[in-house]
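Input sequence (291 aa), recorded before submission:
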Amino acid sequence: MCAAEDLVMDEPPRKQDSSSSHVVGLSLCDSAPLLWRSDDLRSLRAQGLVGALLGSLARTPRQNVRLGRPLLLLPEEERLLSERHAAAALPPANQDAEGAELVQEAEQQRSYEEQSVLALEDRKSALLQAMTSSHTGESGTADEALQQRLEALDQSFTFPRSALAVQLSTARAGLTQCPESRAFLQADWPIRAQADPHCPARYQVFRDLRGRGFYLTSAGKFGGDFLVYPGDPLRFHAHFIAVCLSADEPICLLDLLSVARLGSNVKKTVLLCSPAGGGVLYTSLQWSGMV
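Predicted structure, token format:
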């Protein structure tokens, strides 16, 4: 049996965020807003916005328990930052393709010179070891011959470019340096700009709950729209699963029972959130047993 109850939430005084003056820089990958800079992540967290980390850690890349930058924003978080004028798109780095190509060639030439020096030292070391082991009794003649061989090696040694070890950058896949990749990622119809009938309701619910001091993250794996935390998700478990619906939108009874049962299994209360009359109407659902 599913018990429903209308909730009336008192409106707390809205606090001004201390980091509201800091403008976070957004980098767009296709239609996904990403944050890369650590200062932006700290400012975002100070405003009560969480996002989701996507990147691997440099020292432990082959695990997904702890993740690092970049941080992916929810569409509602991006819109809220835009309304607060607290976010701006970062200018693409290395817009000039010719300049980027020159920088890449200079870096490759510097790497080639360093590897040439190291390869010559390795060849000398191998030569020294071979001649020392073969001429154990003739010290004077062996030293003179070794010196001549080393001088000849200095003059004749060339390091083939085909043996050059190239370091591939995996931080951002070099997309900002490649005009073709940038053009490919600039979609004509970004995902976040597509018409979705639930977008206005989701954003109104998100803004209302965030204004009441709650923290919100995505609740896709719990069958809802948002997980609602009473405080920072690093310190608290979620108390509610928010499902955003229009006030006049019908809902299937089986879907209602399913989400209520799932909320009971994970020890969370399901909130049906419906924007109405400039505010949001909240109805809580709890599974109380079978009839």
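Checked by second reader. The first strand starts at residue 2 and ends at 7.
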